[in-house]
Design goal:
- By secondary structure, this protein is α/β, with parallel strands linked by helices.
- It has two domains: 2-221, Rossmann fold (3-Layer(aba) Sandwich), CATH 3.40.50.300; 232-286, no CATH class.
- It contains nine helices and 15 strands.
- Strands 2-3-1-4-5-7-6 form a seven-stranded mixed beta sheet, with helices on both faces.
- The two termini are 16 Å apart.
């Protein structure tokens, strides 16, 4: 099983947390779908978030597919809490950028896009709310390619035209494709991780439309990052639990970390792996894990 850490980013009201719920539910990690506006979303655990119906803090959840263990980080969509989002980007293997088909590429979407480029995060795009009256997938694709990148490619249908569109994003890939007339899955995976191609999927998170296809595509086209045996980690969040204990959220980027060891002059009392509000205590965290 490959391990992937991804974060969902979006302009407010694009359906970011709703997509998180849909992915967790479709993967079988949630029995019931929560709603942001009902205050029962799995990842909006803070009381202020429940009251306001928006994501203010980044939260973590786990989901599994046939070949992947995915750590999902839900981030704030409101510009007032963008610092939380930016801190999370530094620990992601991939990002999922949610765009509402009714709003298109907003100014904050472009801001997120530039941040993702700064941190060199590969990006999958989910165009949400395709069930809205007047929604036009063709126009949405043109909007994204014009305002974000011409290398954003529709991954909804894998056919000859799809491979031609992927090949056209990179000269070396195009030459290889023209010579052989074929393209391997690894070629596509490498193009994505090198930010030469940005996959686009369409759906409605609220109606669970296109979620199975997106989850299958994300599992297929991502690749696990390789890490050094030398210990390295990055902190992306500081919070407190219900007892007031300080929590330091780390992504292990090399080696491993054991409980009761000393890190940066402080003793680690406990290692936890969170899934929403719940957590399990672990004795050791390995590279690639949160």
């Amino acid at each position: 099983m490959k391990k992937i850490t991804t974060g969902i980013v979006a302009h407010v009201d694009a359906g970011k947390t709703t997509l998180s719920e849909a992915l967790l539910y479709t993967a079988g990690n949630l029995r019931n779908l929560g709603r942001v506006d009902n205050g029962d979303a799995f990842l909006d655990t803070d009381q202020l978030e429940k009251k306001r119906g928006i994501t203010i803090f980044s939260h973590e959840a786990k989901l599994t597919t046939n070949n992947s263990e995915i750590t999902l980080l839900d981030t704030p969509g409101h510009v007032d809490f963008s610092a939380q989002t930016e801190e999370t980007l530094s620990v992601l293997d991939y990002a999922i950028l949610v765009i509402s088909i009714t709003d298109g590429v907003t100014s904050y979407t472009r801001t997120l896009w530039h941040l993702l480029k700064r941190y060199q995060v590969p990006v999958f795009i989910f165009v949400n709310k395709v069930d809205a009256i007047g929604a036009d997938r063709g126009m949405a694709l043109v909007d994204i390619q014009k305002n974000l990148s011409e290398s954003c490619v529709d991954f909804s249908k894998i056919d000859d035209e799809f491979y031609e569109n992927v090949a056209a994003t990179d000269d070396a890939l195009l030459e290889k494709y023209l010579d052989s007339g074929a393209m391997s899955d690894q070629d596509v995976q490498n193009a994505i991780v090198q930010r030469k191609v940005f996959p686009i999927y369409f759906g409605s998170a609220l109606k669970l439309t296109g979620i199975t296809e997106f989850l299958a595509g994300f599992s297929k086209w991502t690749k696990e990052k390789e890490f050094s045996d030398k210990f390295a980690a990055r902190c992306f969040k500081i919070s407190h639990d219900t007892k007031g204990e300080r929590l330091t959220w780390l992504r292990i980027l090399g080696g491993s970390l054991k409980a009761k060891t000393e890190l940066a002059g402080e003793k680690i009392n406990q290692l936890r792996s969170y899934n929403g509000e719940k957590f399990v205590t672990i004795t050791e965290a390995a590279a690639g894990e949160i």
